[in-house]
């Protein structure tokens, strides 16, 4: 039987393209997937000269690989990785190498390393970036952990990696789960930049009222300036794409509910543990979260209306109103967390009672807690205090003042991140439509992650170029 140099488990977006890339570089490769169609499509897409075979039976796949074996997992992070390892493990031999090329949580990688080491199997995590095209024609790869095992595979990875000035975009990064950790933070930065681009788009669209073709030209031109980057480049291309059926700009038909797979959230969570402030990444994660509250946003848009132009200066009365506005938003956010925690952990919390006992004695006691209590008596299932008629009206009446305070603070260079977070949360929550459709389009462009549309049911993938 033919013996292959390298095997990949999971023939989806990344696995299939990495195998084709390896075959381009003269390696003989085999792939395993649970789905016969995917195994077939791998062979169909290969060129005659390429040495590629697809399998759906783990035994045949494993016995087709040269020993000691080199196998990479490219299956979704979490349980599928453990399931894939579980199915391979009885078939592996001492000194075989298993590389997890997916976006696994770094502590899962540490655990898997320990478990596989007991069986004398080398295991290491290697984050991979570049999406579908990167995998096919040259990704950036971030290995860490077992340095000797990496060394055995280095020539393959260096051959298939992207090159800059002749240097491959892959190098051993450090011990343990360093590879997955670096890729996690890469994705956190990715989230931050995608959110910033979406905001820049929104400022041009809503704030300056530019037509779509002008915004497209601006993004395209920015890519020839100091902003040159993959994400700016693809945004220019995304804005160009017309929907084949309606002839409209496809972006405007994409749902603004942004999906995510976890790496951005983990970046924020671990940054908090390390006391590493990453507020842009935090904001990017929470904007994807807020985007999910579509029904509430549509509802809030009806009552929490914009109050018009703001003052150019501020005074203590305005500051008092701004502080009240921001404080109410802080309570509203905490109450939403309690409601969700109650559902998730089965606490059976009654938020009216929480508001009641917080009215006195505790550090956050305040006159407004009586208003919250009344709001929850009126509507025990109230999803967010901002949706209460009286509370909402009290915020609408004060919004000009917090906007003025933030404006003055920004002009004078005074850090007011909590005031900014309050007004940003309010504005995001009262947005019937957010610019997170840009994020959904970007995710589909680079990673074939698919998107929902506003004019029909289902999930879609576009050929963006
Ligand atoms: N798409 C992207 O842009 C990028 C993805 N990644 C990461 O790479 C990994 C793979 O992503 P991607 O290729 O997009 O995912 P896909 O969902 O496109 O592909 C995963 C494939 O793995 C198969 N699979 C799942 N479990 C097993 C198993 N036990 N044995 C064999 N095959 C299995 C799936 O089959 P089935 O569908 O039938 O379940 C599917 O074909 C993930 O961790 C992802 O986060 C990293 C960088 C970029
Ligand atoms: O790793 C990637 C890109 O570098 C993947 O495309 C990842 O899925 C992106 O994260 P998310 O799906 O949460 O937007």
Automatic annotation (TrEMBL):
Keyword NADP carried by entry: yes
Name the record gives this protein: 6-phosphogluconate dehydrogenase, decarboxylating
Record keyword NADP present: yes
Similarity section: Belongs to the 6-phosphogluconate dehydrogenase family.
GO biological process per UniProt: D-gluconate metabolic process; pentose-phosphate shunt
Positions bound to substrate: 103, 129-131, 186-187, 191, 261, 288, 443, 449
Organism listed in the record: Echinicola soli
Enzyme Commission no: 1.1.1.44
Catalysed transformations (reactions): 6-phospho-D-gluconate + NADP(+) = D-ribulose 5-phosphate + CO2 + NADPH
NCBIfam families: gnd, PRK09287.1
Catalytic site: 183 (proton acceptor), 190 (proton donor)
Source species, domain of life: Bacteria
Record function comment: Catalyzes the oxidative decarboxylation of 6-phosphogluconate to ribulose 5-phosphate and CO(2), with concomitant reduction of NADP to NADPH.
Gene Ontology terms, MF aspect: NADP binding; phosphogluconate dehydrogenase (decarboxylating) activity
Every 6-phosphogluconate dehydrogenase C-terminal domain range: 179-465
Keywords annotated in UniProt: Gluconate utilization, NADP, Oxidoreductase, Pentose shunt
